[in-house]
Amino acid sequence: METTYSNALSPVEKLFVKSGQIMAVRQWHGGPFYEIDVSLPQVNFEKWDTAQAIKCRISPLHYTDYTPAIWDAAEKICTLYIDTGHAGPGSSWAKDQVEGNAFHYMKIESEKHYPLGSHLVFLGDQTAIGHFCALQQLAQQDTEISGFINFNDAITAAAFSENCAWLPLQPTTAYTEIHTQTDKWILDNRYKIEDCIFYLVGNAKLIVSLRKLLHTHGIGGSRIKSKGFWQ
After folding, report:
1. In terms of C-beta distances under 8 Å and separation of at least 24 residues, what long-range contacts does 178-182 make, across chains too?
2. What is the pLDDT of residue 7?
3. pTM (2 decimals)?
């Protein structure tokens, strides 16, 4: 049964809201992480050359940005990865979704993040999965990808390796661990570090601390691309 929120477009919203449909919902091991497949027939996916942000309607007059992670331009379907481990309207919305629900959104905008160089290094937390998947899809096939992604719990970390096997990132379960692993990776890969572009995505405090770590290794701002999703 479709949830009430999707039937309650206000007269004002009807002037600018676009619509699609929820095609599938998958919950990782019964935990707080969800994959939601969305059909967007009005979208020209072929034109995407950067990561995008779709402003999803999650309650009346309330919109939240999510990153279309994986998309099929021919079928006009994309996947959203949503962490519901915190209280909020976005988490409630994601948990309520079922196949067949209407999907409403205001607009889709460029995030101005795109793959640069021959080796991309992704560093972030579980809210960054969609963003990293988008960058990987946009990258050339011979682009090397490395990095670490931090999770709030071991169950979701294990589910990541199972559900995103194509994304070659190593999961961690503590902020200290992602810093330690990143530091070690840089030392072990000094010979090719000049070829790397670093993408820091997720919690703002994590991004700041990781940027400081990269700076201690002489990695300048021109090779660091950041995107903060939450405080």
Report:
1. 178/123, 178/148, 178/149, 178/150, 178/206, 178/210, 179/209, 179/210, 179/213, 181/148, 182/123, 182/148, 182/210, 182/213
2. 53
3. 0.92
Tens-place pLDDT, residues 74-120: 999 999 999 998 888 999 999 999 999 999 999 999 998 999 999 99
Cα–Cα dist 203/45, whole Å: 28
Q: How far apart are CA 40 and CA 19, in angstroms?
A: 7
Domain that holds residue 127: 119-228
User: Which secondary structure element, helix H or strand E, spans residue 186, and what is its range?
Assistant: helix 175-188
CA dist., res. 22 & res. 102, Å (int): 6
Evaluate if residue 39 carries a pLDDT over 50. Answer: yes
Q: Residue 57 class from Cβ within 10 Å (0-12 exposed, 13-18 middle, 19+ buried)?
A: buried
Q: Within this chain, do residues 103 and 132 fall inside the same structural domain, yes or no?
A: no
Q: Transcribe 31-97 into DSSP letters.
A: SSEEEEEEE-TT--GGG--S-EEEEEEEETTEEEEE-EEEEETTTTEEEEEEE-SS-SHHHHHHHH-
Which among 85, 101, 88 is positioned nearest to 38, based on CA atoms? Answer: 101
Same domain, 157 and 180: yes
pLDDT confidence of residue 15:
80
Strand partners of residue 202: 228
Shared domain for 221 and 133, answered yes or no, is: yes
Is residue 7 one of the residues assigned to a domain?
no
Instruction: Return the amino acid letter for 135.
Output: L
